[in-house]
Amino acid sequence: MTYLIRNSASFILSILFCFIVIGCESNFRDVQKMGFAEFSPSGDADDINLKYTDSGRITANLISPKMLDYATVEFPFTEFPKGIHLTLFDKNGKQTYIDAKYAVSHKDTNLIDLQDNVKISNQNGELLETEQLYYDQKNEWFFTEKKFKFTSPKGVSYGEGIDFSKDFKKVNSQKISGEVQSE
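^ LPS export ABC transporter periplasmic protein LptC, sequence as received from the core. Prediction below:
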């Protein structure tokens, strides 16, 4: 009889445990959903044409078919999933053109991450092509560790790793090869 009561108690406890687990499973999923923050943009814009000014002078013109703004996340950023065309203007009005099929602008660091078929050119006929390029907006400086191709009126060179000023006046490159005419 003691054996029967123990088996019955074990059976009842097993059944009770199963009900608790099944009941907790749905509650657990509800708790998970409450803790899950949906990662969605706080702003969404199509066909943008932004002009940045400093003391009444246009310093940049950003054109993009799509902009997603994530201003309310812990590390805010703006994403351009369909690419950008950016024109930078120096104090003398000279222009630098940047095209990329994808870009992310990080607000806290003032870095723009340009990706996928990145091309940067200027009015002097210089063109740099790479798959990823970073732009430090504060220091007006570009850099990458990826392979690149640099074309200028003097010739074509290839390399892996480069950093330069937005006007191409200061250039530091690594692992470079190609033919360039000397002055």
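The mean pLDDT is 81.
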